[in-house]
Amino acid sequence: MNRICALFQIKYPIVQGGMVWNSGWRLASAVSNAGGLGLIGAGSMYPEVLRTHIARCQKATERPFGVNVPLLYPNIEEIMDIIIEMKVKIVFTSAGNPRLYTQRLKEAGITVVHVVSSVAFALKAEQAGVDAIVAEGFEAGGHNGREETTTLTLIPMVQQAIKCPLIAAGGIATGTGMLATMVLGADGVQLGSRFVASVESSAHQLFKEKVLSVKEGDTTLTLKELAPVRLIKNKFYQDLQELYQQNPTKEELQKLLGRARAKRGMFEGDLVDGELEIGQIAGLISEVKPAAEIVSDLVREYNHAMGHLPEGL
Predict the structure, then answer these.
(1) In the chain, what are the domain boundaries?
(2) How far apart are CA 115 and CA 181, in angstroms?
(3) Section 144-172 average pLDDT
């Protein structure tokens, strides 16, 4: 049996990314009901909001789902308390040291996965005792690694270095992309951008429509001085580039970024001054679909590609 399917007790080795402002209980439960693993994105939720989303997800699906927790976010202790109290079975951690909470979560019977962007961080996560690792190439949307290692390069390097199950992320939105990363050594895949453009995503409709219009070269990795993030090039991005011409300090960058800019862009639909996080693979996304149909498409495309691989050289 596939190692990711066995670990999470799911039908397909397909994980929906826990994306801030996009991944509420509706999306997580829809992906889980379709046979994948849905994740609630705790990074954009106050503790009591997360509690509500977990409770609603538990009512909406009897299948496994998880919560993604960026470790550098505020209220982390309260968030972990809620996750344990509400008997969440799977937690994906990111943006921080996996040693901080892995042991505590595992003692509570929780399966722990950590997201990394390099071989070095993968090794540290495995040493911390995680049950699986997500290796995310810099094609991915949202916050990213400073190494700028592509998925095509990262996956085989991490696969050689670790023994625990490996999930590939970054630049995957199709069944053929899923097959490619699994040929490179991944046991499963995590998709973010493809599920942003889903019916159940909590992203604003204007942001979903903007994702459909993205072409090659319309996104870029920026704000490396604070936390690298891949953005669609809009007015906010252009303002940022103008500021960079002045050799700004971190404080000046932070002032321009301000508070809740990602919420303005992705959740409230401000396409001008909001922060619009999406991956390079958005150039292949042309339609908003129900999450179940996205999962079905991935499986169908994967199986079709498996049966049509070129013969020999």
Answers:
(1) 3-202+285-305, 205-281
(2) 16
(3) 94
